[in-house]
Amino acid sequence: MQQISGRELISEITLDDLQKAVGGSVTFGACVHKIRRMSGFAFVILRTGRYLLQSVYEEKKCDDTIDGITMGSYVEITGEVKEESRANYGYEITLTAIKLLSKPAAEYPLHVSDKKLGCTLDTNLSNRSVALRHPHERAIFRVAEGIVTGFRDFMLSQNFTEIHTPKICAASAEGGANIFKLKYFGQDAVLAQSPQFYKQTCVAFFDRVFEIAPVYRAEKHNSARHLNEYIGLDFEMGFIKDMTDVMQMETAMLKHVVKHLEENYSHELEMLGAELPVINEIPSVTFFEALDILGKSRNPFDLDPSDEVRLCEYAKEKHGSEFIFVTRFPGAKRPFYAMDTPEDPKLAESFDLLFRGLEITTGGQRIHEYDMQVEKLARYGIAPEELESYLMIHKYGMPPHGGLGIGLERLTMKMLGLENIKQASLFPRDLHHLDP
Predict the structure, then answer these.
(1) Is the pTM of the predicted complex or chain greater than 0.85?
(2) Pick from 23, 198, 300, 433: CA 20 to 30 A from residue 111's CA?
(3) Closest residue by Cα to residue 213 from 198, 226, 224, 202
(4) Which of 43, 45, 10, 17 shows the shortest CA–CA distance to 31?
(5) What would the pLDDT profile of 106-115 be if each residue is shown by its tens digit?
(6) So where are the chain's domains?
(7) pLDDT (tens digit, 9 = 90+) per residue, 383-426?
């Protein structure tokens, strides 16, 4: 038992706890995942916050009965730990006590104790609070936790400051019609499409910043790659030479994240059958070089999903990389804060990172000079008065800077080889899902 302020709490067990307890006893809380009754005894599979643990119930060895305890019951158990190679993780617990804490009022509508959940995605999402009890489903979000932790640890190690910016804003960072609008005490407001304005502002006094927070896009997509609310992993850094500094920082960060997952989430990765990428150097091509590789004319201003797949196939075949940077997009398809390419102002110092056939990152160098930003706003038909508070950062001085945003769910989806981004969101928000 743990103690907080003199009060005993039911413990959360770890594999280290079990290893140390071999030959002794443990007490912890768990959910009954499955009961397999045999002749004279029963296997009681216990689901903790991370593991499925095998315990054995024998009437003569246990002070309590399992009569009345069903799948889905929450219990506090005490038992003797021994090594058992045939059991999950190599440990088995012989129950000496089992106390019923709560019992479900209805049976699960899904096969939570089966090896695979075995239902459609729609059924999964309609019964999300049950589906996430399945070890395979929740393992996805353990890995997502690992990506976030690895990202945060790396950023802090590189002297970035973690920030938390508003999600109710007066103006949109990206512009366009894909904005969730709301009334804020009688004023017009929007939900943040990006922390862009605020993270740029913070570079002026922190030099390097990062944020892990929700992002909102009112796009009427119904696809396997889009969400209307997702978690953005953003960073912005000052004193850069050019956008390649940002690309190099992302490459180093991704290497760190993969190593962190390998070291701390091996059993989730094994359960999910995931193969993590090997990251050495990530190849880079310009947008027009990408069109040449694809055999397309130079008229398009952007890449479509099939282009992203083919470019990743090219990177894998030509460079042995599952990632590829595409740089210097036509400026007309990039935001007003993107730096123009010095050699060709029709292009932007902006990049996408593609991974296993999907864009997971957009980033680049931002404009830091006041007059240059005002002039580009004019080109976009935006009056400086509309973005007065944003322009204050340029007016009062900014270092050369750049950054990026990564979609956590997209990165998780591709790390794990999932078919649909909704599988990588605890409670996805899209055209058809506002509840649960």
Answers:
(1) yes
(2) 433
(3) 198
(4) 45
(5) 999 999 999 9
(6) 2-102, 135-424
(7) 999 999 999 999 999 999 999 999 999 999 999 999 999 999 99
